[in-house]
Structures are given as structure tokens and as C-alpha cells.
Amino acid sequence: MEHLLPTRILSIGTNDYDSPVLREAAAILREGGLVAFPTETVYGLGADATNPDAVAAIFRAKGRPATNPLIVHADDYAMARTCVREWPVPVAKLAERFWPGPLTIVLARSDRIAPNVSAGLDTVGLRIPGKRAARSLIRLAGVPIAAPSANRSTGISPTLASHVAKDLTGRIDLILDGGPTHVGIESTVLDLTGETPRILRPGVIAAQEIEEVLKAQVETAPGVVEDVESPMTSPGQMPLHYAPRTYTTRVPPSFARRIFLAGPRAGVLVLGRPGLKIENPRVALRIDLPTAEEAERNLYAALHQLDEAGLDTIVIVTPPKDHKWLAVYDRILRASRYSKQDWEE
Ligand code: TXA
Ligand code: MG
User: How far is CA 217 from each of CA 92, 165, 197, 212, rounded to the nearest angstrom?
Assistant: First the structure.
């Protein structure tokens, strides 16, 4: 039986610069402990990125495969610079435009960062988070902080402290509660170590905005939904990640009226499609996120709510084929199955 930690939850203000709570959290991090904290995207599970034992504890607490690398968070350019071997001009330009903010840049890892942060890779994903309390915590800790999303591996990402508590109570030292995160979806991950800049994970910072800064073409990695025209028919070969425990399926809006597996108690999450009618008495809970911005901010909270509602099935009605919806679409492909039996006669 694993030893349980007495996980505490302490409140902070999102603009806190210095406070006894932040100082205590920073001390826990310096001693190799685990602290969950809010960023502008989702809550992160932080540990000292220079301490391999502390980093190993993140993987254990999350049940995360050691092959999946972590993102390192810095409080300013000076600290960010110590995490990488080189700081080429394109990085400086991207940092100037997007940091602090939801862009992670993959670069050549410096020796300061523990190799297990990067799952043994020679690179490191780096960002300066866009929430002042998060940067203050890192500054007070005085070391770069490795932080994946603060959920058990493959589960739904946390946008509230209560989401973190549900997954990680007993497994970490402290949860800092700074209220809801305002971006709501994980950072865009951009790999700059290859010949062409490449998006590994879409987020609210779009390829086009990055291209404008770099004045160069940006690729999208295979496996990311690059073309929102095609995924409506993609057969659900995506590994489930960000997934509710309840059986979750996705359907195009034209089929929303005849969902077969949706009973006896189904929940429906409608993305876009304002006014969509679903006349099915088995729908016990319906949540609408009509715009891409609302969906980015509230997708995970909606999935947590649906997952806790004691439903038999969750049905996600897919959003319009529009690039605005790309980041949300990427997440729902990984949160749901696509089975024609769920809606075809
Ligand atoms: O918004 C976010 O990015 C949040 C907050 C807490 O900062 N963090 C987050 O971390 O989403 P995580 O661990 O859940 O996702 C990290 C992603 C993974 O897809 C991982 O494969 C990729 O970043 N990644 C990290 N380091 C990498 C590297 N060196 N090379 C390629 N991909 C990397
Ligand atoms: Mg994650």
C-alpha cells in the first residue's frame, strides 16, 4: 500500500506577488516536494526541474509513463535562458510576442535541467506562464519548475483546484487554489529543434500567429488534427487522453437527434451549434459551449461536470469545421470514441 500524503489546499490570489502561502509553497518545491498551482491554461503539478528525485515523484503521482516529457516553467527570460543550450533569434522573437503566455517552445536542453524531465530526450519544452502568482512561486523557489497538468495520467485536465483535489489528494504535498484558470486549455507546443518549426499540440496561439512572428512556414505534426475538414470521419484511432471515465462518444450534429447508446441517462455536450434541437427524453444533462472561446475556457470543467453526474453515456456533438475550433477539436478527439454504431441505424 502506497504511503498517503496529507495534501493541503491553501488559497492564493491570482496576482499575488509575495505571501506567506507562496513562500511556504516555494520552500516545499525547494525541498523536492510536489505543489499543484494555477497557470493561465490549466493547473500544473510542479516540482524542482533540477532535482531528478522530485521530477520522478511527478511521474509517480500522476501514474505517467516515463516516456512522456514534462514542460519546464520559468519566471523570466533570465531563468528561461538557463534551461536551454541555445537562444536563437526566433526564440527571442517568439518570447517577446507570446511570453508570459500559453506557448511552449521545445529547445535544446541545458545540463541544469534533470534529464528525466525530458524522458531522456536532448530537448526541453519551456514556457513562462501568464499568471502572476505562478511566476511569483517560481521566482520564490529560485529554480525552474517542471509541471505537467495536475491530473492523473490520461484523465481530464484540471481548471479548478477541486479538479486537482479529486485526482491527486493523498499523492502530493500542497494544492494552491487560485480559482478558475482563464485560458482553460493547455499551451500550444512548438518544436524549434528541427529544420522547420512544428506544432506538436495545438492551443489558443495558432500556427498563423506564430508564422507572422517567424516570417516562416510552420508545420503541424502528424497525429495533430491539422485539417478540420477531415476529422469528422476519422475512425477514433487517437489514444484516449483527457478522457472522462464515463463512456464518451462523439457525433456530428446531423445525427444528434437519434443517438442510440445515449440511454437510459445520457449527457450531451454541444460545441458550437447554437439552437441545436435534441429531442431525446434520455438526455439528463445538456451543456452548451456556443463559441470556440467559451469551449476553450470551459471544455474541461464541462467534462468534469458530466463525468460526475452519474450518466451512462456522454455524447459530444462536434463543432463546426473551422480553424477556430482546432485546439478544442484536438482535445475532444482524444476524449471520446467515434463509433458509427452509436448513431447509425
Ligand atoms: O499549458 C500547459 O502546457 C500546461 C501547464 C501546466 O503549463 N502543462 C501541460 O503539461 O499541459 P503536460 O505534461 O500535460 O503536456 C506536455 C506536453 C506533452 O504533450 C508532451 O509530450 C509535450 O508537451 N512535450 C514536453 N516536452 C517535450 C519535448 N522535449 N519534446 C516534445 N514534446 C514535449
Ligand atoms: Mg496533460
Answer: 17, 41, 7, 9
**Average pLDDT, integer, range 159-179:** 97
Burial class (CB in 10 A: 0-12, 13-18, 19+), 89: exposed
Question: Is the distance from the beta carbon of residue 156 to the nearest atom of ligand 1 less than 6 Å?
Answer: no
Other CB atoms within 10 A of residue 239 CB:
9
Q: Is the CB of 123 under 6 A from ligand 1?
A: yes
State the closest ligand 1 atom to the C-alpha of 109, by its place in the atom list counted from 1. 29
- The strand pairing partners of 269, in sequence order, are 287, 316
Q: Counting atoms of ligand 1 from 1, which one is nearest the CA of 149?
A: 14
CB of 113 shorter than 6 A to ligand 1: no
Q: Sign of dihedral through CA atoms 194, 196, 200, 204?
A: positive
Q: State in Å: Cα 285 to ligand 1 middle.
A: 32
The span from the CA of 207 to the CA of 327, in Å, is 11
| Contact (CB, 8 A) for 146 and 71 | yes
Residue-wise pLDDT for 237-282, tens only, equals 456 788 899 999 888 888 766 666 656 899 999 999 998 988 888 8
* Alpha carbon of 70 to ligand 1 centroid (Å): 5
* Contact 106 CB / ligand 1 (< 6 Å): yes
Supply 127's cell numbers: 514556457
Whether 69 lines ligand 1, by a CB cut-off of 6 Å, is yes
Q: Is the CB of 71 under 6 A from ligand 1?
A: yes
| Separation between Cα atoms, residue 200 and residue 165, nearest integer Å | 29
Q: Which secondary-structure segment (H or E) carries 164?
A: helix 161-168
Residue 342, C-alpha cell as written in the block: 452509436
For residue 201, the ligand 1 atom closest to its alpha carbon is: 19
Span 83-91, mean pLDDT?
96
Contacts 24+ apart (CB under 8 A), 15-23: 15/132, 15/133, 16/132, 16/133, 16/136, 16/178, 17/132, 17/136, 18/136, 18/140, 21/176, 22/133, 22/136, 22/137, 22/140, 22/176, 23/140
Q: 200: helix, coil or strand?
A: strand
Residue pLDDT, tens place only, 197-247: 999 999 999 999 999 999 999 998 877 765 444 444 444 445 678 889 999
